[in-house]
Give the backbone structure.
Amino acid sequence: MIDESHVRELLDARDDDAALVLLEGRARVIDAAARADERYAGAAVLLTRGELVGRLGTAAPAEQDLRTLAQSLGDAVGKLGA
């Protein structure tokens, strides 16, 4: 459900308020303006770009750190039954 490409896409976003969201069982990265869009009503925000950089401690992490974080997010979402 959540993989390294989602985390990389979020990290590559220009806006610190871009977010990795979960909607109807699918993860996607959206910009801050899209979060107010009706298409994303009910989406659960998992992590913003700003939070991601803060958690990783850098905007240029090692690929292994991205994989580890993606796995952690995927496990957490799976436990929620999403």
Summary: The longest strand covers residues 19-23. The mean pLDDT is 91. The helical segments are 4-12, 49-56, 63-80. The first helix runs from residue 4 to 12.
